[in-house]
Backbone:
């Protein structure tokens, strides 16, 4: 059997460790030249496949590929672009096969979250539906931590470490100022539907900090929340609120919505923090500060979790190993064997069970009042933020890599998206 | 001569390294028991002196005092409280002397920014004005970097490192997403009047990132700014804006003002980022994300600059050494001997030349278009962000110290602020 080429692409919102998965994919593929001739990366995700804009990763040095392990963002460009079903848009699938054939691509590695798992699953069906043999493997990634089956999703552990650390540092700050100045600090974190990232902010309660967390899973009750804030400030002299961007009223309205939607139809959120801060100020007059971490949180490779980086790499590596072993329509997963000490291994799940399933915070991870996390949640979270994995620095700043990203010569005509 | 006690207090907005200065003060004082019997810290800054709420630092272990070197925030509490002039409020000065006498305090170490230098200068005049011998030393601190004479101010280098790193990471992120999604990222940074922190964001231009910086020193011109944004996006596919909270229109109006003022009369700012982001969206329809770092930037001890930490400690140490040498009304300073390699030494300046003087960005640090920094500014900034000085971690989070803060038994009656 002659070696086939592999297609690899990054999809959806990038993270601080998605390139570590890319590194795992490419380094493992390079170790099996008898099975995988070359890895072609899609420029800007699946769009690179549709437009035949492929990047020749063979032209990148081993050193630069290794540097992906500590470089945040998507080195090949990502995209927000969801394939329709085969019935709804056969033209796109025909094009994919045309490109795969032209470039001898037999493996499809898609590195993304829930929507991407769906795309990957559709591609995995091409063999049967359109007669072209391609093995599709989904490499999980999402700061939202909302993929099912896997213990956690690469990207999440590092965001959790960043948010917990930042909330702790801000809490120390506010505590210093609260006698005569700021009494309330509100930090807004990502998480449209699932409160995993917000839960990380709640960890600072373990260091005596009076934190209230607002989860998307708990409907917002202004009166009850304000009473809880007042109780914290009266007991501690200050209060910290960690609010998820997805926090919403019982009727579904988000605390703040900018009114725009992304390509997947999700509302683009942001601005819950100032809403909450002003609400508290109006009620009690407390002086406040607020922060919106936004991209800073998911890009913060300088504070990555070591276990997250290791898992991101291992899942990329496992994706290639699963492909070589002949698997299709599959996602490598993290399987937790023990929380203390944290012991994990790589498993796998069929994409049919992954695609379009969202994993929310279990009810027993949230305290009865809805503003904190339970010991069960702590046991889950702490292992994921363990260890530091600092990037190298040069001139005072992290030395991240920008690849050459040389295109593979095209063989086909244009394709209109 | 019997040893006298020292009073030490933290004032104004805290930083990630002000406790490193506290560490320098206390460790150096402990090394000179013949001169300084004990360091009493003011609980919540100067308010602790006025209300006779003193903290006995002798009751803190050497290990915990050493841990202050890597703990952000103000370990003894800070305050925003400005003493009036002696003529306007003699009652407060009489009270200070009463407390100093009662606790045998002969040294006054005040750790703060411009307003605090003014307070410290007033206290230094007490010997002459009210006949009580006290030596007042100002230990500089301010993320705003706006104190005169000293090469830079402790706290600034670490914020600069954090903002430059965070802007770089976010720029990598946006670059990945820009083909089909976010094209504009706006990060708002601190700096009411001086654009030093915003200048740090401009450093990412050296890594090829299309960044526009909005300084308080440059009046905002919406039309010209939008044209510059468009040019960046058309050339690079995306754009980064680093906006100072103090950015304002020619008539003095801030881009965003929350309408409240702090005890020093400064407007409390925040929210310039969403204003700028929406302005760009309205003009060109570019999808955007924005972040407001707020306290996260000044509390980010996890990403402190090593040179900043070293200088913060050295200035605390020098403050005590100057006091022991008999100085009064003085501030230790950082003197730059060379930029490359960065060589500095400790000098000192009379408080009469420090109090109420603000150091803005020099005109030749800002590019002609007003949106970037010059090579001269780069030469100034890079040394200040050199080196990493990571805190220890435990359970995935930084292990910061919370002191016992045991009060010194009171000897006097109450005092109404």
Residues:
């Amino acid at each position: 059997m002659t070696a086939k080429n592999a297609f690899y692409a990054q999809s959806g919102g990038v993270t601080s460790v998605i390139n570590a998965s890319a590194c795992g994919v490419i380094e493992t593929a390079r170790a099996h030249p008898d099975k995988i001739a070359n890895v072609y990366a899609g420029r800007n995700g699946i769009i690179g496949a549709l437009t035949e804009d492929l990047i020749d990763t063979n032209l990148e040095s081993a050193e630069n590929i290794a540097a992906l392990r500590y470089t945040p963002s998507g080195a090949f460009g990502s995209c927000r672009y969801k394939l329709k079903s085969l019935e709804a848009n056969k033209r796109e699938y025909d094009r994919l096969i045309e490109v795969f054939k032209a470039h001898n691509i037999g493996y499809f590695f898609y590195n993304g979250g829930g929507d991407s798992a769906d795309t990957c699953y559709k591609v995995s069906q091409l063999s049967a539906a359109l007669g072209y043999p391609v093995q599709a493997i989904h490499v999980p990634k999402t700061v939202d931590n909302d993929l099912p089956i896997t213990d956690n999703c690469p990207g999440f552990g590092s965001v959790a470490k960043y948010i917990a650390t930042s909330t702790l540092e801000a809490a120390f700050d506010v505590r210093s100022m609260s006698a005569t100045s700021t009494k309330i600090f509100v930090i807004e974190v990502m998480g449209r539907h699932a409160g995993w990232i917000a839960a990380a902010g709640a960890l600072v309660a373990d260091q005596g900090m009076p934190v209230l967390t607002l989860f998307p899973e708990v409907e917002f009750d202004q009166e009850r929340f304000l009473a809880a804030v007042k109780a914290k400030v009266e007991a501690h002299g200050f209060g910290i609120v960690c609010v998820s961007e997805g926090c919403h009223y019982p009727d579904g309205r988000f605390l703040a919505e900018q009114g725009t939607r992304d390509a997947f139809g999700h509302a683009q959120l942001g601005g819950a923090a100032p809403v909450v801060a002003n609400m508290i100020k109006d009620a009690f007059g407390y002086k406040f500060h607020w922060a919106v971490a936004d991209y800073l949180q998911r890009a913060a490779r300088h504070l990555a979790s070591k276990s997250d980086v290791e898992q991101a790499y291992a899942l990329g590596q496992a994706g290639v190993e699963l492909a070589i072993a002949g698997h299709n329509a599959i996602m490598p997963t993290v399987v937790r064997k023990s929380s203390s000490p944290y012991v994990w291994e790589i498993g796998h799940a069929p994409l049919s069970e992954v695609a379009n399933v969202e994993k929310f915070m279990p009810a027993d991870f949230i305290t009865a009042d809805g503003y904190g996390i339970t010991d069960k949640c702590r046991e889950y979270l702490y292992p994921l933020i363990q260890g530091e994995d600092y990037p190298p620095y040069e001139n005072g700043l992290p030395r991240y890599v920008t690849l050459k990203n040389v295109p593979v010569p095209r063989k086909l005509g244009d394709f209109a998206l």
Remarks:
- Chain B has two domains: 4-141+304-356+388-398, 156-301.
- The first helix of chain B runs from residue 18 to 30.
- The mean pLDDT of chain B is 94.
